TrEMBL record:
Protein name: GDT1 family protein
Membrane topology (UniProt): Multi-pass membrane protein
Keyword rRNA-binding: no
Key words, A-Z: Membrane, Transmembrane, Transmembrane helix
Length: 97
């Protein structure tokens, strides 16, 4: 095992996830809780479990559907999100004002 690559990957992901909502929840809980270690290990375990479940679900979907169909589904999904942001976001902000 390449320990340098493992450490570099860990540090990169760790730094990119610092602003995540789970980190903010952990900070909020630790300010009220008695045991900061329990809160840290609980949130770290939850993050690991959700990552594991996401990887397992992604692997299962990749086994069922061909790569070309998965890419098409992702492209259509991103196009729908882009269209909603471009065309429908302005109407909601105008109504709230």
């Amino acid at each position: 095992m390449d320990w340098h690559l493992l450490g570099l990957s860990f540090i990169t992901v760790f730094l990119s996830e610092l602003g995540d909502k789970s980190q903010l929840a952990a900070i909020a809980l630790s300010s009220r809780g008695q045991s900061q270690k329990a809160i840290f290990f609980g949130t770290a375990g939850a993050l690991l479990l959700t990552s594991l479940l996401g990887a397992l679900a992604g692997g299962a979907v990749a086994e069922l559907l061909p790569t070309r169909i998965l890419k098409a589904i992702a492209a259509v999904g991103f196009a729908i999100l882009a269209a909603r942001l471009l065309f429908f976001n302005n109407e909601e902000s105008a109504e709230s004002e």
